[in-house]
Structure formats: C-alpha cells, structure tokens
Amino acid sequence: MEANKYRLGLLATGLLCLATASCGGGSAAPVGNTPDPTPPDVRRELESRLDAEFSRLGLEPLSVEHAAPTAPHASVFDMVAEQTRADGSGYTLLLSWTEVLAGDADLSGTVDKADLDALEAHHSKSVDYRDPRVYHGEQGWPQGYWWDDQGRDIPPADSGAANWRMARVDANRDGTISEADVQVIAENWHSRISAYVIEWQQPGESGFSQLPNPVDDSMPFTVWRSAAFPEGSQVADPYRPVRYYFELQVPQAGQYSFRVRPFDELSGTAGDAGNPASVSAGGPGVMLDGSELPSELSLAAPGEWRFDASGSSAEAGIAAYDWDLDGNGSFETATGATPTVDHSFGGSGAWRVSVRVTDGNGLANVASRVVYVEPVQQMRPAAYKVRMSDGVRLSTHVYLPQSGSGPWPVMLVRTPYGKDPSVYLPLAEEMNNAGYALVTQDMRGRYESEGNLSIPLEGEDMLEPRDGVDTFDWLNTQEWCNGSIGSTGGSMLGMTQLYSAPHHPQGLKGQFIGVAPASMYHQFVYVGGAFRQMQMEQWVDIAGFDPQSLEIWRAHPEYDEYWEQFNIANTAADVQVPGMHYGGWFDTFSQGTIDSWSIRQKQGGQGARGRQWLVMGPWGHGTEYNRKQGEIEFPENAIKPPDYPYPMFMDHFVLGTDTGLLERPFVTYYRMGAIAEEGAPGNDWQFADDWPVPHSVASYYLHADGSLSTQAPLEPETMQWSFDPSDPTPTVGGRNLYEPKGMFDQRSIEGRSDNLLFTTDPLAQPLEVTGRVLANLFIASDAVDTDVAVRLSDVYPDGRSILVLDGILRLRYRNGFSEAVLLVPDERTEVEVDLWSTSYVFNSGHRIRLALTSSNHARWDLNPGTGEVWVDGGEYVVQENTVYFGPQQASALLLPVVQ
After folding, report:
1. Cα distances (Å, whole numbers) of residue 506 to 416, 473, 476, 484
2. How many Cβ atoms from other residues are within 10 Å of residue 47's Cβ?
C-alpha cells in the first residue's frame, strides 16, 4: 500500500451568548426543560441502582482502574467522512467527529460517583434528540449558546449545547434522565479519553483494520487529544465540545469507511468503536443549499423550503439524487436527475436534511445541513428604520393588536441584545391582549441598527438618551399610537429608561425599570472602590463590546466627572414620570435598584416624586421570578408577589384605568428565611410605605476568640491575617451578573488562613434583619493599601454556612471615592464596609457569621498593596493586616433589626 498523507487538527468549538437570561435570545430547539420537582428519595434510588450495577458487572468500584470508555455511543458524536479534493495525485478525505464521554454527567473528565449529582438534579427531565443516530453533533446543534447555564443545568431550548451536553447526563440516550442512566455510569466507571485510534475499511475489504502510522507501519495511527491545547495543558474547557478533524490522501477510488476507538493513555486501554462513516473516493462532490420559500406573514403552518444540490459534480456524471428530509437516515425521497426538492416540515425546530448524490459509476456521497424552522406565529412584526436626529436609523419592530382598529397605547422596549421576534412574541401577545401595541428597538450600533456602539458609556453611546427622545417623537407621529406610551425592560434595558426620563420624552406616562443601577460607578463598574473584574470582563466579551472599554473604565478608578454623568441623582429633579422598579436581593444591582427608586421617589420632579413603586424579591440577575438561587430553593411564593403590581401600574398610568394602584403600599419586598425548617419565620412578602422600614441598629461586636456578640470586648485585643495577592480567596456565589450567583455554602473557603471568622452562639429566638448592613471596623496594614472584604452568612444547625450578603472596601477610598488617600503603614484607621441591603430572618438555633479577609476574586480585582491598580504580572506585596477589638476600637457588624 502506498503511504498515506495525513493532516489533523482539533478545535475546541462553542457558541457565545450575547445576552443574559433576562434579555433572552436564540431559536427553538427540541429540548424539554420543565420537570417535576425531584422526589426526596431519588438519591437513595440512584445509589442503590449503582450498587446493583456494580454487582451485576462484578465490579469492586474502589479497585477499578482508569480505562477508556466501552459502553455503546460512549465517546463519539457525529462522525462524518467527506471527500474534499480529487486530482491526479489521488483523493483527499476529511474525517471529523465530536468527543463525548457518556456517563460523565458533571463534565469533570472522569466517570465517577459525583456524576450521580447531575442525575439527581435533572431526574425525570426529558430530551428530544429527533433521531439519536443523526441528530447529535456539532453539525446538528440548533443555534444557541453553550454557556447559558455554566454547565449547572440542562441547557435551555435555545442552547446550541443541548444535544452534546445532554448526552452526558442522559447517558443511555433514551430521552429521559432516570435510574436507567446509572447503567452507563457503572459500565464506564473511571473512564477517560486521551486519544482516538482510527480504523478503516478499504475498497473491497470485508472488515475494519487499524489505519497504519505513516512513520511506523506496525503502529496504529492515534490522534492525541492534548495536541489541541497549550503546552502543559491536557484538559479542555469542560463546557466546550472538542471537535476532531483528520485529513488523509488515498490513491485508489472506491468506498471507504472509517470509525474511531477511544484510547486512555495511562491504562493503555482502548474502548469500543463508534458508528462508522463512509465516503466514496472518486465519487461525486456534493453541495447542498437550502432556503425558505416566500409565504404569508401570518403563518398557519411551518414554511416550505427548497433544497438545491445543483452545485454537485462528478466526472462520471450524476445519475440520481436521493433525499432524507426528516433526519431519519432513510433517503425516502428520490428526484432522479432533478437536483432540487421542495419540502414542508412537520413542525418547528431544528431539522437535518441530507442529499445522497450517485454518479454514473454507482459511487455515492452525502452532504447534510441543518435548517431552523421558526415556531408557528400568529403575528409577525412590521419592520421600520426610524431615523434619529443625526440621521442614524434604528431598526424597530411594531406588534399591533389583532382586534380593534386603534389607535392604541404603546409599550416600548429598547435593547442592546437584539429584538428577535421569537423572544418578544410572548410579550407582544400579552401586551396586545391587554390593549397595547408593543414596539421593540435595537439600540444604536447594535444588531440591525445603524451607528456605532462598540464602547458603552463612550462615543455614540452618549447619544442614547437623545435616541430615546427621538423614538418617542416618531411614535407620536404614527397613526396607530394614541400618544400614551410606557417603557419597560431590565438591566441595560432599564438603564436606557433611567437616562432618557430626564429629557421629557413626549407621551411617556410610566416606566417599568428592572435591575438597573442608579450610579454606574458605585453599583456597576466599581463597588467599594474595587473594580468588578469578573462581571465587566464577562459582559464586554459576551455582549461583543470593544475590550478597550475595560481600559477606559479602569483609567477612572475614582468617582470623577466621567462618572458624574452616569448618576441619576444629578438629574432626578428633571424626571416627571411615575415608575415601578423591581430587583432582587442577589442581583448585581440590588442596591442600585433600591437607590433608583428612592432617588426618584424623594428627589424627583413633581410628576415623579411620590409616584414610584418598588418590588424586591429573592432573585438574582437573570433569575428573576425563579425559586432557585444558588444552592437554596425558596418556596413557591417566591416566584412573584400576590397581586403582582406590574399590570396594575401600567394599566393605571398608560392605559388610563383605575386599578387600585394608588391604594397599594409603595414598597413590596420578600422577607427571606430558613429553608426546609417547619415553622421557620420569613419566606413571605411584606409591604411598606417607605424604605428603609422602621428598625433599630444592633451592634454585634467581633472578639479575638472568634465570637460575635452584642457585648463589646472589655480589653483591647487584635487578630491578624496575611493577604497574598497570588493566592486570593475565590468567589463562591453572591451578587454576580453571571454564574455562580446567589446563596452558596461558604465552608469551602472558610478554612483558609487568610479568612477570619466571627460567629454568634445559636440564636435563642429568630432575628429579622431588614435594611442596609454595615461593618464598622478598626484596621491597620503594613502596606499603603489593602482591601477589606466581608461576608455575612447564616450558619444552619447542620453546619452549612449560607451566604446572605457580602461587601468590599478598598482602603485608599475609606474617606470617599473621589480621592485616594493611602494608608500610613501600621497605623490604625476606622473604616465602614457596605454590604448593601437585605431582608432576612435568622432562625432560632442558627448562628450569624461574619468572615473577614482581603479578597473575593475574581468578582473584584486584586489589590497589589502598592497604591497602584492591579496589573497581571506587575508588582505586589503580601499585606499583613490587623483588626482591632476593645472599648475604644470596637469593630462591629451593624444589623438593622426589625422587632
């Protein structure tokens, strides 16, 4: 046999989301996501099933060595073989496949008992693969975002990771997460994949043999996984699928089949081969195009598509085209010599279409593509390009009620995350049914709008308030608008409302503003003078902004004139519109939401002052109206308050109907409490006419023995901790924009030597804390600057230390954020760390814990201790810090206690 030529490559592939969960995005895909709650005995059943499988297989789990996976479909997705070139020197074939390790449900890289956690969490959830043989790989993923859930949950219906990741959880690929998947975990126990051995079947041969190594014919050719990753790194990003590409040249025409077998280097074992893929060398080159045929705007069924393979070619001429239009691999539709076919799909979602082209010599090759059929829509928006005063046109969609002749009141949404109709159709139907027209608009420079918005808070973004006003002016010229307009949206969609309101948009009657900061410096980019590193870097990357944004923001570490323009307190008196503000206790802008409400309620113009409502739930950013926050799941009533005030507010001010809103208290908030403890107080909705609610401040003093009590120390004492910026305390939950966010057990970091813990005795009776929590501390450092990071936890009787609040202060800003004042080394100073606000009942028998350290990374950037900003690879010093206790230096946690 003539030596074959090989070229190989590996790609870690994945798709990025441009929006948080609160802004939506993506298209429909066949994955289910609304299971029943997990029964309490599921874990016991899973462990029992695992023991039974070990017994059936005769395995002693502790003695099982690592090996390559052997269970069916254990290691390969979407094996594809193609002919890419044919010339006088032979034929170039390309193999590709996606790696999967069935049974590795938690994506750790090894199949072990920890994978039962994922089965327990997703028990009874269902997955629709269409046909598992063909609909499960990189080429078959619906459009979407692999990272949406950071691997913690089944991907949502619009996630491109759906089939790849779900095959790890649904290990036996039967479409349901159940005890049956434990069988694959047992069969693949301690499995790993280091490489793949390639096998082939040449023309005229009856079986497969190992593809010989071009260097040594006696050795099989092996594609090593580590070739894809940087030197010294053997592990891929566990949330991105790895796609292998292997190219070889063969001199002989004919039918070739290939398959790959997983290999574990450490054990030297090879697993079962995956399903083979075939290609005809010298056969036709196949090209497949597809496009949706024109149809009525109002659809009664999914649209008709035309598929065209006329770009295909073959030296021997093309004899036949056969089509697989439903993805089942049967090629049930024959069109003879006609290279096109029209087809209407049986439903919406992602469909795989393939064409098999056969030449005059009987050789055949196949090409496939995936098409996305939109859900049946009873409406599609009218599309406009609305011209702004500087000539830039903003892409705008209008959804009008199907009944009535108008004109109607209008609800406006302006977004930087895309106005995809598949996302906004449910809101449009809700608004239309309530008697509103819905208008959605891409902000300047985003998606289908003109202009440039590469750097937020810079350049053309400064025109954003004016764009809002121009849009209102345009709405008032439309015959379908009756001149009464409301605006709605959360996060950046809420910020656009805050910044446009002082400019008096024509016809604006009310604003529904969600999870939006009052001050971009104090509550978005910086907190306590520390840069929100993880949040800002992720947001810029995911939203597709220019990375130069980070340099600009970091060049303004103090609250200066640059940041003044992004503080709504400076323009509050110009606001004349009522507002409803909603936020969550674990939202990254939680205090900003409260402050936005308070500023407009108490400092707004005549039309705004005294006409603002506030709702604070037990939610995070993008997890609003969700019971589960981190590791804690609240009762059903946490989803939304009774008599949810949103429709009451909009109908009153925009629709002009009496809804009883004016009799409703201004503040609605969720009072959190202990979970799964019968009779525990809290976990209920409370109402008030003002915020903060009446309370008294209780001082809980820190003691050198690690206690926390209402009795101040009688003698002066100190404790020390050493902060090494090269080994910071990692972030474990909290008020983060992205995962991990919410309430998490802190015990994994509480044992660190740079974390000082102060804990009360078990409470004799419940203690309600509602309002703003502060830590008043006496601190010294041997460095000219350091950070004080504080965490407040609820310590359950079983030992869990569940995060409630946290905060940080960069001590150079202890006197205010407008000017840096460095520390005098080893000189004691009094500082106040703001943990922001909450409403939480610590139950009797629980303990309150304060953790004191100098980092919470990468939530906040690191302090090098030199007086400069942190630079990766730059200079830093280890900071020796001291906290003081005693009569004249009584460091204390200040709790707003409600009787």
Report:
1. 22, 6, 8, 9
2. 14
Strand partners, 701: 709, 892
* 629-661: pLDDT as tens digits: 999 999 999 999 988 888 899 999 999 999 999
Q: Which of 593, 616, 639 corresponds to the end of one domain?
A: 616
- CB distance 631 to 793 below 8 Å: no
Q: Note the maximum CA span of the chain.
A: 99
pLDDT in tens, 546-598: 899 999 999 999 999 999 999 999 999 999 999 999 999 999 999 999 999 99
| Residue 459 and residue 338 in one domain | no
Nearest to 370 by CA among 76, 136, 97, 157: 136
Same-domain check for residues 719 and 772: yes
Write out the residue range of the structural domain in which residue 238 sits: 5-281
Domain count, the chain: 4
Reported pTM: 0.65
**Quick one: pLDDT at residue 572?**
97
Q: Which of 138, 127, 25, 28 is nearest to 372 (CA)?
A: 28
Statement to judge: residues 348 and 391 lie in one domain: no
Element (DSSP H or E) covering residue 56 = helix 42-57
- Residue 394: beta bridge partners? 386
Which CATH number do you get for residue 517?
3.40.50.1820
Which of 437, 434, 418, 447 shows the shortest CA–CA distance to 379? 437
Owner of token pair 């509050």: 572
CA atoms of 139 and 587, how far apart (whole Å): 36
Please give the Cα distance from 30 to 163 (Å, whole number): 9
Find, among 738, 592, 584, the residue nearest to 669 by Cα: 584
Long-range residue pairs from 533-541, CB within 8 A, at least 24 positions apart, any chain: 533/857, 533/858, 533/859, 533/860, 533/861, 534/731, 534/736, 534/738, 534/858, 534/859, 534/860, 535/588, 535/736, 535/737, 535/738, 535/859, 538/737, 538/738, 539/737, 541/16
- Upstream peptide bond of 858 is cis (omega within 30 degrees of 0): yes
Rounded Cα distance, 346 and 375, in Å: 11
The span from the CA of 721 to the CA of 855, in Å, is: 12
Residue owning tokens 């024109």:
294
Compute the distance between CA of residue 317 and CA of residue 322 in angstroms, rounded to an integer.
Answer: 15
Residues of the chain with pLDDT under 70: 1-40, 71-74, 77-78, 88, 106-109, 126-168, 215, 217-218, 225-243, 293-303, 347-350, 370, 372-379, 457, 459-461
Q: Please, are residues 863 and 742 in contact by the beta-carbon 8 Å criterion?
A: no
Distances, alpha carbon 385 to alpha carbons 389, 396, 441, 450, in Å: 13, 6, 9, 9
Beta strands in 729-795 (DSSP E): 756-759, 767-781, 787-795
| Secondary structure class of 45 (helix, strand, coil) | helix
Phi and psi torsions of 668, nearest 5°:
-125, 125
CB 267 within 8 A of CB 68: yes
Q: Based on the domain organization, do 26 and 68 belong to the same domain?
A: yes
